[in-house]
Amino acid sequence: MMRRKNVTKRPLPKHIAIVLDGNGRWAKKRGLPRTAGHQRGAQNLERIAVFASQLGIGVMSVYAFSTENWQRPQAEVDYLMKMPKLFEDEYEEAFRASDIKVVFSGRRDRLSKENIDLLKRVEEESKDRQGMVLNVCLDYGGRDEIVRAIDTLKNHEEPIDEATLGAALDTGALPPVDLLIRPGGEQRISNFMLWQAAYAELVFMKTPWPAFSKRHLLKAVANYQKRNRRFGGLKGRA
Length: 238
Ligand code: IPE
Ligand code: IPE
Ligand code: MG
Known about the structure:
By secondary structure, this protein is an alpha/beta fold.
């Protein structure tokens, strides 16, 4: 059994990124529509984000809707696009109580006016909070984010370096991803945090996101704490 105390006495990842995957399969296994999986997944986001903030994690990025997810059946896309409202109505209170600052990454030009306004409202209302940053990635793709960043720099006078491009990304001043967790059984990145996860430790877990518990998060962090992060150097190499 993974103990919280053992995890918190060792250095924690500053930035954890999670691919919220496996909602559909979780639902199918229970004879429920895929949308039931998305709903349960959204509830779980509240629980795990609050727990991560209590652990002392600085930033948690979550992949909620990719630039590729528009290819899904219209009814599923429509349902997923109602999630931000659910997020605001049902979960904002818990984030406020935990002093969690909410920001969004991803494109804003393909969302409805209601959702664009909602995202702005949630960011504005939480901007002075001092606790964990919850970065919700919506209509997000790592490639798209890099292309948009380059576009904003097209009139840049100086030569572009990594710091300049990094700061122009949606994640701007956020630290690089230390630990990337993908529940749901797939072992791929699916266009998430391509730049920010350059040296992230990867943890893939079979459990689908709606069943991902506090214990799974502790397990992933404990796994991270055992890794030897060399960043291309020789530290700890035999
Ligand atoms: C993740 O769960 C949610 C989104 C991608 C929006 P999926 O909907 O991908 O669930 P699976 O992978 O089909 O089980
Ligand atoms: C990745 O999951 C995107 C999100 C969780 C938002 P997908 O289910 O879309 O990824 P693939 O299709 O399995 O690569
Ligand atoms: Mg999936």
